[in-house]
Design a protein that fits this description.
single chain; Rossmann fold; 2 domains; 12 helices; 10 strands; 17% strand; Rossmann-like_a/b/a_fold
Length: 298
């Protein structure tokens, strides 16, 4: 018999960027609310090589230098997170290896990973790759990607938004969205999207508006069904249902203007496949105006 790993701690990846520092501050606030330790981690890059494939400096000297630089980055991150959350429990680690692989390894036992914004555009992610996308596609726990420029004080009362499409991954996103809304003591907006599909019966005005009304009513009923039970579990969370006749990429992106967090499920498509058939999570990672929480089955 196998048992699920115990999920412990919120892990923030620190790479020296301003975005990673903002992500760490957000992670510290979440860790404080969830009563979890905050684990700050820095992944060391590969040892630089010369043109003939040998190290440009003695390996031990380079390792010492990189370790010292990593510790400095973690010092700065710890100082920043304690300014707003002085009581948060902070753990730290500097690890060797490719960042994406190291973070995915940490995700096996973490409650959540938190990363800075993707350093590539959607098109660059297709051809060059992106560590943020790799982690979001392969992590064994939810991954929060920092987006937005609002200060925490400006977002404290903003709602959490969750995309609901009826899939198992969407149900997982709903569970995490209710949890966040409850811990952050804010409302929840549940968004379900649909698009009108042409039929063989033509497009008479009477039929079109009649069909739309019926379809919207059915969609709202399905949305209510997917949310059933969660209101009883989190009675203090005020829930608003929103059925929208537009693609999820467009609808959820618009909601990020008013939200403090948007939560979605993800199938973990690679960027090339996502560019062909679409990926709501990857679109939000690159364009959202607030942090994005991507949920996958671990």
């Amino acid at each position: 018999m196998t048992t699920a790993p115990i999920r412990h701690g919120i892990v923030a990846g620190i790479d020296g960027s301003d975005s990673a520092m903002d992500a760490a501050r957000w992670a510290a606030g979440a860790a404080q609310r969830f009563d979890e330790p905050l684990h700050l981690t820095h992944l060391l890059p590969k040892t630089p090589k010369s043109a003939d494939g040998t190290s440009t400096e003695p390996e031990e000297k380079l390792d010492d230098q990189l370790l010292a630089e990593g510790d400095e980055l973690l010092d700065a991150a710890e100082k920043a997170v304690r300014e707003a959350n002085p009581d948060v429990v902070v753990e730290r680690s500097v690890k060797h290896g490719p960042p994406a692989r190291g973070l995915v390894d940490l995700s096996r036992t973490a409650r959540m990973l938190v990363l800075g914004r993707a350093g590539t555009s959607e098109m660059q992610s297709v051809f060059l790759g992106s560590d943020v996308i790799r982690v979001a596609n392969n992590a064994k726990c939810p991954v929060a990607v920092w987006r937005g420029t609002h200060a925490p004080d400006d977002t404290a009362s903003r709602p959490v938004v969750v995309g609901v499409d009826g899939s198992k991954l969407s149900d997982l996103a709903v569970a995490h969205a209710f949890e966040f809304a409850a811990f952050f003591e804010v409302p929840l907006i549940a968004v379900h999207c649909w698009r009108e599909v042409a039929g063989f019966g033509g497009y008479s005005e009477a039929r079109r508006f009649s069909d739309l009304e019926v379809h919207e009513q059915r969609s709202d009923a399905r949305l209510a069904e997917r949310l059933a039970g969660w209101g009883e579990r989190y009675p203090d969370v005020k829930v608003t249902r929103s059925v929208e006749r537009v693609g999820p990429n467009v609808a959820l992106l618009e909601h990020t203007e008013e939200a403090q967090l948007v939560v979605v499920g993800s199938h973990g498509r690679n960027p090339f496949v996502a560019s062909l058939i679409g990926s709501t999570s990857q679109s939000l990672i690159h364009h959202a105006l607030c942090p994005v929480l991507v949920c996958r089955e671990g």
